[in-house]
Design brief:
20 helices, single chain, globular, alpha+beta, five-stranded mixed beta sheet, 26% strand, eight-stranded mixed beta sheet
Length: 651
Amino acid sequence: MIKITFPDDSVREYAEGTTAMQIAESISSRLAQDVLAASVNGEIWDLTRPITSDSAVKLFKWDDAEGKHAFWHSSAHLMAEALQELFPGTKFGIGPAIENGFYYDVDPETPIKDSDFPAIEAKMLELVARKESIKRESISKEDAIKMFGDRGETYKTELIGELADGTITTYTQGNFTDLCRGPHLPNTSYIKAVKILSVAGAYWRGDEKRKQLVRLYGITFPKKKMLDEYLALLEEAKKRDHRKLGKELELFTFSQAVGQGLPLWLPRGTQLRMRLEDFLKRIQKRYGYQQVITPHIGQKELYITSGHYAKYGKDSFQPIHTPQDGEEFLLKPMNCPHHCEIFKAFPRSYKDLPIRFAEFGTVYRYEQSGELHGLTRVRGFTQDDAHLFCRPDQLKDEFLKVMDIIFIIFKALDFENFEAQISLRDPNNKEKYIGSDENWDKAERAIVEACQEKGLKAKVELGEAAFYGPKLDFMVKDAIGRRWQLGTIQVDYNLPERFELEYTGDDNKKHRPVMIHRAPFGSMERFVAVLIEHTGGKFPLWLTPDQVVIMPISEKFNEYAYKVSSMLEDQDIRVLVDDRNEKIGRKIRDNELKRIPYMLVVGEKEAENDEVSVRKQGEGDKGSMNITTFASLLNAEVEEMMNHWQKKEGK
């Protein structure tokens, strides 16, 4: 008999060789129907894999990320099996589960087009109906190379060549066998609804110098209703796509002449972005931050010292050479080395700390053209960066204050549905990181304790830390339930050592400060993209570039429209005048599409009485009112919004 320990610390005995599925069946038949995967001593396993020793076991259902992962990983194999039947001679690359669904990179002999999607879906459902068992097998490296080599699977044999003997497993369903670590579902019958979403190109192993494969994306569900709901969500997401709305609202653009991944901010987008920056600057001033400005380039040696060149140099923009022989500069990939040098510029005392440097600093990182996506994946972006230098005894308090700033921003912009993740280093792969075990232990402990003190439930993820330190990341859910990573706080004992940063303590000896990296927005580009999609382009009244549009009924009232505009601008209200020679109905429709919160119609009656006829976005006609009254009401609405988050924060 073996002892199985459950998450609630209860223990049951089972016969040696019992599977996770049998354990689920012993608890309830309902659980056995719902369970998709299990963890055994922290490792994710198939439900049908025998457990041969005392173990801690946790069972995962659809609502668990681990359950979805097994479901979608099996679905990737199902799609590959269908492709093998429909497109003979196809060679297979990799087919992982992703956050929503799965993909498979394949090299078919004939092209796969959108018009092939229905046939692929039908074949997948046919294979589902066969209820094919998914069987795991350990295999030697020699046998694996022979098996996949005989089939002409050049991509698989390349992967096998990099694996250690004794660690290789395959999964087989029907006539399809794949190189895979798993885990997988017991059989294909769990999959009830199938949709192929898109086809794209992807270089093998992300290398532009290698062959471009076909990347086929799909998604599956255990119920048809779930697929219907997801497809409805996709349609809503298309309407909210920041690339589409960014163009419609005239916020930003891209130019091939300027270069891929380098956004150009248009006047309205610049207003929006500057308003966000001003908002954060006001908060930072309250918390004792000092603004700094640093160059867009730095000497290569600066980033060698920081460690960024070793980590990013090969994949970044190539060095800039000057007429001076041997002199090399790099486009700035990070702001932190520059801020370290600012700290180092003067002698520092323990009385000076904490010192908080903040900068909206533009940085540059080379991304492959196939990875670029609107504002969310670019080659030049501006971080709302700050670096705090403090004594070890100040670390937790400073970390807590940064958390407060992030909470203020989320509340002000209605991102109140969020999750936190503590990202720690991989204890089994420490060579990926710089710094001593002692410093890492102290930094990781400080983050965990700060979250406990705030009562913030944070998921712990091993292996997700930055190379120089652990971090606390915030994932927000937008209005249609999608998760976005926004906001990060990182503790760093390592850069102060690398840059030999010092302060004089109260013992008159030299000490190393602790450094905190933080970016509540993350990057201005990505944050604006998420904000556009979260709001559908209907920004909060305090933030929107244009709060009011004035629409004269005819050209006769243009002069009055501009008079109203001038009066509102005197009240710090952002105004447009739509004086086009168009019918008023057309003007109303066009400006509704621009998501301008208030539309003011002016004609003869309004001009005679110094009034405006008010329409509110989404609410329609609000009646006529005096210009001064309207200005007071709008500013009171903005004031209420700003006070709303301040009251919540107790400021």
